[in-house]
């Protein structure tokens, strides 16, 4: 096998690794335990955390019959950061929001961030909503590296008698149809399950998908390691053969022996 062919296979394997870790959508609503998935991580450290409320207490219907809860900011600047999940450049974050502003200070800012190992964060997408009435969906195209670990941060405030509510959010990978990335379970008449959707930590099926992805990553990384060794072996062998050939060519032939 030539070293060029090995390099091509190496690049294909790398692209497959990116696909495996980032080809699933992520959805989240606030019907479960909010504190298990959201916190005052990062820049939220010095601000009060958003609180969970029920639509029934406000006389508002959720965007879906299965939606009964929301999160909202306090009357002072409030903040909440989500759990960390895999993102891919070119994907989209969608946040379902309800607003009834009564003051110019009522607003919501959504930031998508790349999480770095040193604890820092790089903003890869952002949306700012102010003076919006009723339901709306903020759609945020995200940038950044091909594949990375990231999270969303919600910052906002709502004056008394104002409403700034977040019902749910989802991440849709590039090239994935939003019709297969359901925020809420489909009605019973829908035969197909949600095949490509990852629920946040704490859901029943997240453990299975996490183990499967880790196993695939380990296997693909082993393949990459083997191919890398083959590439370096081929390159080293070719370089070693060149001096030997030059030595053979440059060595003069012995003079002919005189005839007796």
Helices and strands in order:
Layout lengths: L2 H20 L2 E5 L4 H4 L13 E4 H4 L10 E4 L5 E4 L3 E4 L3 E9 L6 E9 L5 E10 L3 E8 L5 E11 L5 E10 L24 E2 L7 H45 L10
Parallel strand pairs: 1-12
Antiparallel strand pairs: 1-11, 2-3, 4-10, 5-10, 6-9, 6-11, 7-8, 7-10
Keywords: Membrane, Signal, Transmembrane, Transmembrane helix
Q: pLDDT under 50 segments (min length 5)? A: 6-22, 203-207
The number of helices is 4
Question: Total domains, how many?
Answer: 2
Helix content: 25-40%
Keywords: Membrane, Signal, Transmembrane, Transmembrane helix
Describe the overall structure.
- This protein is of the alpha+beta class and 260 residues long.
- The chain has two domains: 1-24 and 200-249; 25-186, Jelly Rolls.
- The protein is 28% helix and 31% strand.
- A five-stranded mixed sheet has the order 9-6-11-1-12, with no helix packed on it. Strands 4, 5, 7, 8 and 10 form a five-stranded antiparallel sheet that branches.
- The protein is elongated, with a radius of gyration of 28 Å.
- Keywords: Membrane, Signal, Transmembrane, Transmembrane helix.
- Residues 1-22 form the signal peptide.
- The chain crosses the membrane at residues 208-236.
């Amino acid at each position: 096998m030539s070293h060029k062919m090995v390099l091509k296979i190496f690049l294909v394997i790398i692209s497959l690794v990116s696909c495996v870790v980032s080809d699933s959508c992520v959805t989240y609503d606030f019907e479960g335990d909010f504190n298990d998935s959201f916190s005052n991580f990062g820049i939220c450290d010095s601000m009060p955390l958003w609180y969970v409320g029920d639509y029934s207490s406000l006389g508002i219907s959720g965007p879906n019959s299965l939606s009964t809860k929301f999160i909202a900011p306090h009357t002072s600047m409030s903040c909440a950061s989500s759990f960390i999940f895999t993102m891919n450049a070119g994907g989209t974050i969608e946040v379902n929001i309800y607003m009834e502003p009564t003051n110019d200070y009522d607003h919501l800012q959504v930031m998508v961030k790349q999480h770095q190992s040193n604890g820092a964060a790089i903003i890869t997408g952002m949306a700012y909503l102010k003076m919006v009435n009723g339901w709306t969906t903020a759609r945020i195209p995200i940038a950044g590296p091909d594949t990375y670990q990231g999270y969303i941060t919600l910052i906002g405030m709502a004056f008394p008698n104002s409403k700034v509510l977040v019902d749910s959010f989802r991440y849709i990978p590039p090239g994935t149809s939003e019709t297969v990335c359901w925020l809420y379970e489909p009605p019973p008449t829908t035969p197909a399950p949600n095949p490509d959707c990852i629920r946040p930590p704490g859901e029943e099926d997240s453990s299975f998908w996490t183990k499967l992805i880790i196993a695939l990553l380990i296997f693909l990384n082993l393949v990459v390691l083997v191919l890398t060794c083959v590439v370096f072996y081929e390159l080293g062998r070719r370089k070693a053969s060149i001096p030997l050939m030059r030595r053979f060519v440059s060595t003069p032939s012995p003079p002919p022996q005189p005839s007796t």
